[in-house]
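Let us practice reading a record.
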Amino acid sequence: MSKRQKGRRHRRVNRTPRPMGASRPYAPRPEARPEPPRVLPALGRHEARTWDGLQACGDGGASVDELCASVGYQSRTILKHVQGLAGHGLAELRGDRWYASR
């Protein structure tokens, strides 16, 4: 068989059957960390992070640039997140600042 043609020869590695009764004992699974409670199940991880940053700003609200600095995303991403939060009724825009509704 030539070098360029791959047939069954390259699949010979794991073709031998396992002997019966030679199963490996399973290691106990580590306990899963509990997830933090979510405000709304429709929020993704990144949008929830933006929501937490908006809530941390308090009653004074936050501009998109302030949220960029605190959350760590670009302004386009923050704007997309807060518009989605506004669609859920969790944020509102007053002037040029965003406020958490709940």
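A brief commentary: The helical segments are 45-56, 64-71, 75-88.
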